[in-house]
């Protein structure tokens, strides 16, 4: 991103029904992941971004999201993203989000 002041987390998700997953379930995964990551890291919520043309979220047979956990054009974010403790917070938050999703839909 050319804006060096941009920061935070954003989550992309497929915004249409799939053969095996209704769009509401995929959007719920996106919401859960955003909630856990922002709660766990303190990062700014940049929002959920519905996408139909991202292969990584479109061409799966399950709910899938793409999480942007920071911006490399922002010097402060780069420093956080290189920090082992911050990386572990991200990992733990993603794990909690996956667990919450499966508690609800498994």
Explain what this protein looks like in three dimensions.
- By secondary structure, the protein is of the alpha+beta class.
- It has 4 helices and 3 strands; from the N terminus they run E-H-E-H-E-H-H.
- It has helices at 23-41, 55-58, 75-81, 84-105; strands at residues 9-14, 45-51, 65-68.
- The chain has a 3-stranded mixed sheet.
- The longest helix has 22 residues, at 84-105.
- The protein is globular.
- The protein starts with 8 loop residues before the first strand and ends with a helix.
Task: Give me some keywords for this one.
single chain, 106 residues, alpha+beta, three-stranded mixed sheet, 3 strands, 49% helix, 16% strand
Given the helix and strand composition, which structural class is it? alpha+beta
**Approximate shape:** globular
Number of helices: 4
- Largest sheet properties: 3 strands, mixed
**Structure summary, number of beta strands:** 3
Write the layout of secondary structure elements.
Layout (H helix, E strand, L loop, with lengths): L8 E6 L8 H19 L3 E7 L3 H4 L6 E4 L6 H7 L2 H22 L1
Parallel strand pairs: 1-2
Antiparallel strand pairs: 1-3
Provide a compact summary of the structure.
This protein is α+β, with helices and mostly antiparallel strands and 106 residues long.
